[in-house]
C-alpha cells in the first residue's frame, strides 16, 4: 500500500502548490508519479487528479469567460497534444525520462528568473502564441505538463484576474476531457488507473484546503523559490537516471 502514501503526498503537494502559486500541480505530480507508473500513464493520472478542483474554478468564474479567445490556441494545442500522446507509446522510457528532466530544469530556471526579476510581458504576438500552443500541447501529451506557457499567454491577454482564471481553467478542463478520452481509447490509461486518481483527488483537496488556510501566513516569494528549486533538482535527478 506504499503507493497510497506516495499518491496522497504527491497530490497534497500539488494541491498546496496550486493553491499558493496558482499553477504547477501537474509539474509537482510528475515529479512523483513516474515512481508508481509508466510516464505516459503518470501524465494521464496527473491530469485527472485535479479535475474536481478545475471544475469548481470554471463554474465559479464562468461569467467572465470569453470563448473566442480560446478557440485558435486550443485547436493548435490539441493537435500537437494528440500527436505526442501516440508518440509517447513508442518512445523508450529512458528517452521520456530524459525529456522530462530537461523540461523540469527549463521550467525551474524560467520561473526562478521570472520570479527574481519580476518580469512581466505586456503583449504576445500571434506567432508567439502559436509557438506557445505547439510546445505546450507537445509536452502535455507526453507528460501532462502543458500549463506554464499557456498560463503566461492567457495572463497577458486577459483584462482581469477573473477573466484569466476563467480562460486558463476552462482551457484545461476541455483539454482534460479530450486528452483523457484519447489516452483511454489508445490504451494508455485503463480503469485500473482510476484508483490512483481517486486517492489523488483526496490528497489534492487536502492540499488545497491547507493552502487556503496558510497562504496569509506564508512568505510567498520564499515558498515559490523553494518550489522552483525542488522542481529543478527533480529534473536533474531524471536527467542523471535517464539511462
How does this structure look, described?
With 243 residues, this protein is mainly α. Helices cover 78% and strands 0% of the residues. The protein is built from eleven helices and no strands. The chain has helices spanning 2-21, 25-32, 39-49, 51-60, 71-90, 93-117, 126-143, 147-157, 161-185, 194-214, 220-240. Helix 6 (93-117) runs antiparallel to helix 11 (220-240). The longest helix is centred in the middle third of the chain and has 25 residues, at 93-117. The relative contact order is 0.22.
Shape: globular
- SSE-based structural type: mainly alpha
> How much of the sequence is in beta strands?
under 5%
Cα(first) to Cα(last) distance is 28 Å
Order of helices and strands: HHHHHHHHHHH
What is the helix tally? 11
Low confidence ranges: none
The average pLDDT value, as a whole number, equals 81
How many distinct beta strands? 0
Percent of residues in helices: over 70%
Largest sheet properties? none
Radius of gyration: 17 Å
Multimeric organization:
single chain
